[in-house]
Amino acid sequence: MRPIRLLAATTIALLAAASIVATIAGAAETGNLKLDVLGEDGAGAKNLAHVIAADGKEAGQVTPGSSVAIPPGEYKLVMPIVGGQIVKDGVQIEAGRTHTVLIENVAVLQVSVKDKTGADPGFGVTVTTTDSPHAKVASFISGDKYLFAPSEVDVHVDAPPQGYDWHALQLAPGHRALLTLDEVVKADLVVQTVMSKIPLDNSTRVVILHAGTQTKVAESDPGSEHRFKLDPGDYDAYVENRSGKGKPYVTSAGIHLNSGAKVERTVPLD
Fold first, then answer.
1. For the chain, N or C: smaller number of CB within 10 Å?
2. Cα–Cα dist 58/34, whole Å
3. What residues have CB less than 8 Å from 197, skipping those under 6 apart?
4. Which residues contact 269 (CB under 8 A, 6 or more apart)?
């Protein structure tokens, strides 16, 4: 029985060795196609490129910054981008080697939104044309990165309180447009009207305007105080004095509010 056992063990060892050789040989029979789109700027973009063999069949798929193993031969790379597609013919793959396809004549758009914890909530992003009727050209989720044909676009992010917009954003070939938006915390503004240092809030009306404009943001009628919750930015306070004493109206300009700030502005009416 010993010779039989020895023969069986020898056979198993030979089969294992043959399997390893076959695996190595199979690996050597493939090459790698690497897709480089603007280096780190384009790496991780969601656009999926298709590798097409000479017979017209798809041999694989690859995203910017990654590689795919395919058999040796000549291929065509087709990568759809927003507003068009990139085609690379005559891509030669050799066994055991990497062929890097370099693409630079595209633009990258990424919208980054951060909440208080530094995480991206995943708000909706809509990209439209700049001209009326502002046709939609793409929609995706904040945090994602997409490749575009060079163009000029409008970008809207569905972030609270009412969304945020970038108008006429240039998507230039060979460049990444990174739009960032941190969570906006409203500021607290208290406008105190006084005469001879005595509070006069019960006899005054306060209107908050965008700085340097006549665009009304908020208003407060006569009462115990004039308190406002406002987005960060620059404002003017227009005070209407109904007491019949002192100045009938006063404008207090240049009120700057940072996110989450608490600001008090005293407005004398003497």
1. N
2. 16
3. none
4. 193, 194, 195, 200, 204, 239, 241, 243, 245, 246, 247, 250
Token duo for residue 85: 């597609």
pLDDT band at 28; cut points 50, 70, 90: low
In contact, 188 and 227? CB cutoff 8 Å: yes
Q: How far apart are CA 247 and CA 78, in angstroms?
A: 72
Which residues on neighbouring strands pair with residue 126, listed in sequence order? 139, 156
Alpha-carbon distances of 162 from 56, 158, 219, rounded to whole Å: 48, 7, 19
Distance, CA of 142 to CA of 114 (rounded, Å): 9
Map 223-248 to HEC letters: CCCEEEEECCEEEEEEEEECCCCCCC
Q: What is the DSSP letter of 174?
A: T
> CB–CB of 239/219 below 8 Å?
no
Q: What is the pLDDT of residues 128-142, one digit of tens each?
A: 999 989 999 999 999
Q: What is the pLDDT of residues 160-193, one digit of tens each?
A: 777 889 999 999 999 999 999 876 678 899 999 9
Please check whether residue 36 is in contact with residue 100, taking contact to mean a CB–CB distance below 8 angstroms: yes
Q: Is 167 left (phi over 0), alpha (psi -120 to 50) or beta?
A: beta
Cα 35 to Cα 136: distance, rounded to the nearest angstrom:
28
pLDDT band at 231 (very low <50, low <70, confident <90, very high): confident
Q: What are phi and psi of 60, to 5 degrees?
A: 175, 175
